[in-house]
Amino acid sequence: MTEATTGEQFVFDPFQPGFTDDPYPHYAELRERAPVHRHPFGFWVLSRYADMFALLRAGLSVDLRHVSPDTLPDGRDSVTGAVEPVSGLSMLDVDPPDHTRLRRLVSKAFTPRAVAALEPEIEDLVDGALREIAGAGRVDLVEALSFPLPFTVISRMLGMPSTDHERLRELSGTLVRSLEPIVDTELARAVEAADAEIAAMTAEAIAWKRRHPADDLLTALIAAEDGGDVLSDDELVAQVVLLYLAGHETTVNLISGGVLALLRAPDQLALLRREPELAGNAVEELLRYDSPVQSSRRITLRPYEVDGREIPAGSFVMASLASANRDEAFWGPDAERPRLDREGARQHLSFGGGPHHCLGASLARLEGRVAIGRLVERFPRLELDGEVEWNGRINLRGPERLPIRV
Ligand code: HEM
To answer: Which residue has the higher pLDDT, 194 or 291?
Structure first.
């Protein structure tokens, strides 16, 4: 293929003004002009549904150490500038057999059955938040519901001692930036500092938990670590940090982004009110329509072919899940609008796929369904009360502030 037909002069630029407020037109252009895109920084971007589906299940690596310097342009020593949080030891950053061992240790807490048992507690938390919203009349939904719900649930599941929540929130907000496609030096330094501080806080929480064991996930993981060579000290810290961050930095976007999508599509809001049993499918469609995690990554260990083009071994591939979720070739001509009764909405790729498929998917679905379902049911006059403010992130993208009136 020639440059002209590959559309290689087109450069995907998530840093251009306005991108994080509405990345979707840019994804549409990417799918159209350069569906197998090599960024000038040396990484590749895939954006079509079929390519993503295959990529996620192709048994590729997620370990950044496999990125080959040969794939990078002169002068760059790291593909995205990204640093590896907590030394890259979380299950999200490692391949089998480590991945299999680590995931197995944690997965019991996240089976659909274990998660279903949390429903009454989640309903109580949501109802408590809705009472306060009713009393106040006008609130920022992020502060009132979308953030505290998943944050409280994962803190309780882990059995985290009460700690400096504000500081932790600030640090995790910085640390998740390491998942962005490109990280500049200044941000990389901030991420490293946040990583060190959050790891130290987590190590302290683990030390405290050793003295105060209870029926919770942290105690179970400590027991696994004590039980032999199943889990090292550093690995324990890395899994706890991952669960803690993944537990709240993602679902917050599902709840706020989902509610915003409904408020902007009044016919769909009315549909959900008429047919509350649609709430489960509605959450799938809202996950598709605005992906709380916009991208994942894979690293090729051998040449990997997509659409007649060869991605060389050792390449970093950015998997744009959010783009795949809007691909008309898969979803049909109405891909750009939410339809809560869409058949097959659950085929979205918001939770990734293959061996790294999101471990917390059942929990996120449950929190999303209860929060969005009950909010809509309880407040028939729910409306926007000003402009949404986006959090400015390229990957874990969502509203920073969502003013609503009930
Ligand atoms: C992995 C999305 C909520 C725990 C992932 C991945 C994505 C994702 C895209 C990577 C998948 C891949 O590369 O194939 C989401 C979204 C959520 C959410 C959109 C909310 C709407 C949660 C929650 C938890 C969680 C609530 C746990 C409390 C994890 C873990 C992994 C993961 C542990 C790593 C799995 C592995 O590497 O084997 N998630 N997540 N996530 N997620 Fe989630």
So the answer is: 291
Ligand 1 pocket, 103 CB below 6 A? yes
- Sign of dihedral through CA atoms 295, 182, 37, 64? negative
pLDDT at residue number 225: 72
Q: Is 29 exposed, middle or buried (0-12, 13-18, 19+ CB in 10 A)?
A: middle
| Residue 89 Cβ contacting ligand 1 at under 6 Å | no
Strands, E assignment, 192-251: none
Is pLDDT of 76 > 90? no
22-49 tens-digit pLDDT: 999 999 999 999 999 999 888 999 999 9
Q: Give me the residue spans of the domains in the chain.
A: 26-405
Is the distance from CB of 130 to CB of 122 less than 8 angstroms?
no
Residue of 250, 287, 367 to mutate, ligand 1, most atoms within 8 A of C-beta: 250
Q: Which atom in ligand 1 lies closest to the alpha carbon of residue 297?
A: 13
Q: Is the CB of 395 under 6 A from ligand 1?
A: no
Is residue 5 very low, low, confident or very high in pLDDT (cuts 50, 70, 90)?
A: very low
Q: What is the pLDDT of residue 351?
A: 98
What are φ and ψ of residue 299, in 5° steps? -125, 125
Question: Which among 253, 248, 246, 245 is positioned nearest to 388, based on CA atoms?
Answer: 253
d(CA 199, CA 197): 5
- Summarize the confidence of residues 206-217 as an average pLDDT: 93
Q: Which helix (H) or strand (E) holds 214?
A: none
Residue 87 has what pLDDT? 59
Burial label, 300 (beta-carbon count in 10 A; 0-12, 13-18, 19+): buried
Query: Which numbered atom of ligand 1 lies nearest the CA of 350?
Result: 19
**Do residues 32 and 48 lie in contact, with contact meaning Cβ atoms separated by under 8 Å?**
no
What count of other Cβ atoms lies within 10 Å of the Cβ of residue 13? 11
CATH architecture of 26-405: Orthogonal Bundle (1.10)
Tokens of 69: 């310097």
